[in-house]
């Protein structure tokens, strides 16, 4: 699909949720890439204080942050947005010594202006679909998105940066 409004992020309505295992070689590079692309993903993190601290610092949070792992039912709800083998692998490796985190891009200090433009077209499952400098541009992107993407996982809304946080635009 074409880039929208000179956005550094392309609308990718057919992508699925990815999974990164924090015990795999190069996992921090994979996380940085997902952050750069504004993509939501699942992170399998060892339930170890040092690894949790590394996670917190990577996302610009306090070193003693307390990540909230997904419940098994939460993971099943997200399963429809994953490739079958990825979901199966995640279930196979579910254990007490690992936590599965849903990484939602809007939650992290690293994803704020000026790094991101002040208007986002955002999917609560997939993440940032596009960004724009003006409300008119992001509204145009939303209309284009509505006409070209018909998958439930691509439902998107406009968010704007206001009062030092991302806010859902309600048309006012």
Summary, kept brief:
With 172 residues, this protein is α+β, with helices and mostly antiparallel strands.
Written overview of the protein:
The protein is an alpha+beta fold and 172 residues long. It folds into 2 domains: 18-107, no CATH class; 119-168, no CATH class. It has helices at 27-37, 49-58, 72-78, 84-92, 135-148, and strands spanning 18-21, 41-46, 98-103, 119-123, 127-132, 157-162, 165-168. It has a 4-stranded antiparallel beta sheet with strand order 5-4-6-7, covered by helices on one side. Strands 1-2-3 form a 3-stranded mixed beta sheet, covered by helices on one side. The chain is globular. Mean pLDDT is 85; it is low at 1-11.
Topology (elements, then pairings):
Layout: E1 18-21, H1 27-37, E2 41-46, H2 49-58, H3 72-78, H4 84-92, E3 98-103, E4 119-123, E5 127-132, H5 135-148, E6 157-162, E7 165-168
Parallel strand pairs: 1-2
Antiparallel strand pairs: 2-3, 4-5, 4-6, 6-7
By helix and strand content, what is the structural category?
alpha+beta
- Helix fraction, binned, reads 25-40%
Quick one: how many beta strands?
A: 7
Please, how many helices?
A: 5
Mean pLDDT across every amino acid position? 85
Order of helices and strands: EHEHHHEEEHEE
Low-confidence stretches: 1-11
The outline comes out as: globular
Proportion of strand residues: 15-25%
Instruction: Give the total of domains.
Output: 2
């Amino acid at each position: 699909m074409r880039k929208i409004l000179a956005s550094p992020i392309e609308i990718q309505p057919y992508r699925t949720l990815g999974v990164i295992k924090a015990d795999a070689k190069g996992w921090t590079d994979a996380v940085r890439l997902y952050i750069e692309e504004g993509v939501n993903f699942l992170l399998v993190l060892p339930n170890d204080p040092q690894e949790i601290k590394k996670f917190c610092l990577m996302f610009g949070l306090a070193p003693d942050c307390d990540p909230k792992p997904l419940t098994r039912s939460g993971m099943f709800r997200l399963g429809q947005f994953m490739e079958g083998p990825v979901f199966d692998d995640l279930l196979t490796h579910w254990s007490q010594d690992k936590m599965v985190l849903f990484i939602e891009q809007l939650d992290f200090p690293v994803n704020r202006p000026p790094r991101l433009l002040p208007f986002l077209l955002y999917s609560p499952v997939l993440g940032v679909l596009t960004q724009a400098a003006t409300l008119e541009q992001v509204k145009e992107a939303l209309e284009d998105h509505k006409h070209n993407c018909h998958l439930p996982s691509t439902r998107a809304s406009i968010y704007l940066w206001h009062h030092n946080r991302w806010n859902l635009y309600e048309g006012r």
